[in-house]
Amino acid sequence: MMGRHCTMGVLLFAVCAHTPSAALRAQERSQPEGNITIVQTEWGFDGKAMSRSFVPLSVLVQNDGPNPASGTLRLTKSLGLRHQVDAAFEQSFYVSGFSSKWVQLTPFVVGEFESWEITWGPGNRNRYDIPTPRVGTGATVLFADADDISAVGSALRRCDPALFPVSVTGTDSLRGAVLHSVPEWQGARVQAFREWLERGGRVFLVHGANGEYPRFSGELAFLNDARESVRVGTGRVTRLPLSVRDLDADLVKSLLAVDRTETNEADVARRMLEYSRGAALPIRTDFDDYILKDLRRLTRFQRNWWLVYACAGLYVLAVFPGSYLLGRRVADWRWFYVGFLGIAVLFSAGFTKLGELGSADRSRARSVATAYQLAEGLYDVTQLTCVASRSGDLYELSTAGSGRLYSSLQEVEPVNGTVRLQDGRLDVDLPPASTCNVALRARKQGPALGVQLARLQTTEFKVEELEVRFAPGVYDRSMIVCAWHGRSVYEMEADAGGARLGKHRTRGVQFVDTFGGVPFQQRVQRNQWMQFGVPADDEPESTAERFQTLLYQAVGMTLNLRAGTDPNDVALDPSILRLLIYRPMPDDFRFEGDQLPDQQGYVLYVVDLPIDGGVR
């Protein structure tokens, strides 16, 4: 009998010794097969990043083993000594044996003070510190393969064509592209390139190794237009009778600079002196911050704070001098403790009741989005949302579309969440009665506006007559329509048939910098009082009115202004008429699922109408 028990014990020990635990199996599954190393990383298109933007980070993953390797790259950013901020970013990868592959993540970059790290498994051997990117303006680069000897000798920074994003949402930091040969782009990359160009990009064609301009085919055949300069959407393609070697530093600065920028210290000092003397006012660029502040007020759960503060004051008085007087007057010390504990229990129950949310409150989201029309019913969307959780949950925030990028916009606080880039989803764990900001970039379908230019008459500096028509069902009584041409914004009167030029015109820089007619200093004071629950006299009464006051900041977001921008430079190409349609958010722009049953918002549709010849 004893021998049989010993035999069974030996067999059980052998089975357990050769059977991995569930935790060990999970750890093995999380580690990629093969010997993975990070060979190279590249920020943006020229090694730099634009602040407060989604910037592509290209990672060259190498598999030193014979077997294919797959896994997940996890990118985190931190401040100081490993103090993680924002949510983590994850992207899956697959690399064949003894080969390498570029994997691209697109995080939200705030500035140069952030530290970045990539991990693909446990342990230090599966960790790589990413160099902090230098912050700059949009890049103008020469797209050429690393082994292309015909691309040497230029002052331009080269960029591997394989690093071009597969969606237009990843091109915010690209300003101009120089092509001397035909890049090997297919499918999604060709589409992203075309949409980036139509959104205002600049393409410069120069002579290749054979002394001629590159000859394109397929979906890039529109670049073969022989004219010296041709507009494509709001972008432009320019032919330069030069070779790559002719692109020296002076020529690059004079011909290829897309934006008029002044970044040296002398120019900045001169502008600040002008501002101090009242010659010009510095234009504000933090439109997203003010939108999120207003969205937070629209989203947060309402409590009777005055009653909470009054009860807190009564509790302080009950503890002292109330408990002190009770101890002096009762003869039996036991009654003092009964009274003292009774005060604590009574006020604890009261504060618990006052802190509860009403049964009608639901988890909610309030959003403002800008949607640039790429084609009829297709938009490049930038959306700001404030999400409020009633009872706490793990929220899976996802929306329809492609090229979906997310960020919580946190600069100093950690966020218990993960941006799953391969799935186009943000998973975030929210405590009860808490809020979280979400920034979204996506290419998605939306309502077809059917905008048609019915009548237009302009002079060199002014629009004299303007009438546009919409598709049936577009008109909404609460929508606002404006038109921007050159340096001026025009109010338009809309009805079911379309919109016509209104009576009011204002300078564009004043339109985006007045914050809905409220002077900036007054708005700051109003925000400070409202933090304590004190309503302002000019505070809009309805939710729709509050959303409508955010029109001005939403328009400012579409201009991509940067700190130090000269107010005199805030103008659109006079060959473009920009129609701005601000209306309630449709279901296509809302988060999917039933975790946020209460979603409201407004969308600013941006439709650029060419008013002279061009390719569309």
Q: Mind summarizing the main beta sheet?
A: 11 strands, mixed
Q: Which term fits the overall shape?
A: globular
Number of H- or I-type helical stretches: 12
Structural class: alpha+beta
**End-to-end Cα distance:** 90 Å
Strands of the widest sheet, in order across it, are 21-24-19-18-31-30-27-28-29-26-25
The oligomeric status of these chains comes to single chain
- Point out poorly predicted stretches: 1-31, 258-264, 274-279, 515-537
- The overall strand count is 31
Beta-strand content bin = 35-45%
The radius of gyration is 30 Å
Give the helix level as a range of percent: 10-25%
The average pLDDT is: 84
Question: Would you write up a description of this structure?
Answer:
The longest helix is centred in the middle third of the chain and has 25 residues. It is built from twelve helices and 31 strands. The protein has 616 residues and is an alpha+beta fold.
Topology diagram in text:
Elements: H1 2-18, H2 22-30, E1 36-43, E2 48-49, E3 53-54, E4 57-63, E5 69-79, E6 83-95, E7 99-105, E8 108-109, E9 115-119, E10 127-130, E11 134-135, E12 139-143, E13 158-159, E14 174-179, H3 188-198, E15 202-207, E16 229-232, E17 235-243, H4 249-255, H5 265-276, H6 287-299, H7 305-329, H8 333-355, E18 364-375, E19 378-389, E20 393-398, E21 402-407, E22 414-420, E23 425-430, E24 434-445, E25 452-458, E26 463-469, E27 480-485, E28 488-495, E29 498-507, H9 508-513, H10 520-530, H11 543-548, H12 551-558, E30 576-584, E31 598-610
Parallel strand pairs: 2-11, 6-22, 12-13, 12-14, 14-15, 15-17, 18-31
Antiparallel strand pairs: 1-4, 3-8, 4-7, 5-6, 5-9, 9-10, 16-17, 18-19, 19-24, 20-23, 21-24, 22-23, 25-26, 26-29, 27-28, 27-30, 28-29, 30-31
